[in-house]
Design brief:
Shape of chain A: globular
Number of strands of chain B: 11
Number of helices of chain A: 0
Largest sheet of chain B: 7 strands, mixed
Oligomer: heterodimer
Distance between the termini of chain B: 36 Å
Radius of gyration of chain A: 13 Å
Helix content of chain B: under 10%
Chain lengths: 118, 106
């Protein structure tokens, strides 16, 4: 069974930094691209970052480019999201998601809440 | 970015057929996918590439469309289908989602 378990939830002040982790199991992590997707309260979904299976390529949404960094450690089956210069508009539930067929997101973690507020 | 437009909400009775629409601001070929999100849960992939059922998804769910207009159909609707349904395109970068259609049962 595929499982994705995020951690790193918390409340931080604007301008600060935070790092999220996502531990994967139930599939060969090193064979798949991985993503971070967020959902602001009562809002829709926003894809924010993709990393290829071998970390050879990384892509970001314009809203987070230059502030967020996606990375992975295939030896630990773990995906990361380093978030810097956080803003109130970054407040959201953050999900890690496995890349699926036709560039879908076929498995999602349960999500972690990030709140940016003074 | 490709904007995906969905109706905000629908209400149907169990046993009925419901169609949920998604319109793209530009063509996405057949690279439209559908997700179900129940309250308090993460999204779940239902349909990929317009009409392909994801693993483990009941055959009551089906998808159709190409270009800019797509439809998710549930027939028959069951009480457990109460959820928000999102479309997502992967033809144009960045990948984008629709605003979601909240399905309520009468």
């Amino acid at each position: 069974e595929v499982q994705l378990v995020e951690s790193g939830e918390g409340l931080v002040q604007p301008g600060s930094s935070m790092k999220l982790s996502c531990v994967a199991s139930g599939f060969t992590f090193s064979n798949y691209g991985m993503n971070w997707i967020r959902q602001a309260p009562k809002k829709g979904l926003e894809w924010i970052a993709l990393i290829y299976y071998d970390s050879s390529s990384k892509y970001y949404a314009d809203s987070v480019k230059g502030r967020f960094t996606i990375s992975r450690d295939n030896s630990k089956n773990t995906l990361y999201l380093e978030m810097n210069s956080l803003r109130s508009e970054d407040t959201a539930m953050y999900y890690c998601a496995k890349s699926g067929p036709q560039w879908t997101f076929d498995y999602w973690g349960q999500g972690v809440m990030v709140t940016v507020s003074s | 970015d490709t904007v995906l437009t969905q109706s905000p909400a629908l209400a149907v009775s169990p046993g009925e057929r419901v169609s949920i629409s998604c319109r793209a601001s530009e063509g996405v070929n057949s690279y439209m996918h559908w997700y179900q999100q129940k309250p308090g849960q993460q999204p779940k992939l239902l349909i990929y590439k317009a009409s392909n059922l994801a693993s483990g998804v009941p055959a009551r769910f089906s998808g159709s469309g190409s270009g800019t207009d797509f439809t998710l159909t549930i027939d028959p609707v069951e009480a457990d289908d109460t959820a928000t349904y999102f479309c997502q395109q992967s033809w144009n970068d960045p990948r984008t989602f629709g605003g979601g259609t909240k399905l309520e049962l009468k």
